[in-house]
Amino acid sequence: MREIHVDRVTEAVAEMCQRTNTELPEDVVAALQRARDRETSDTAREILDQLLRNAEIARETKVPLCQDTGVAVVFGDLGQEAALVGGGLQEAVDEGVRRGYEDGYLRKSLVRDPLDRATNTGDNTPAALHLRLVPGDNLTLHMAPKGGGSENMSALWMLTPAQGREGVVEAIVAQVTAAGGMPCPPLVLGVGVGGTFELSALLAKRALLRPLGEPSPVPEVADLEAEMLAAVNATGVGPMGLGGMTTALAVHVERHPCHIASLPLALNVQCHAARHMTVVL
Question: Which domain holds residue 141?
Answer without folding.
Answer: 2-20+65-145
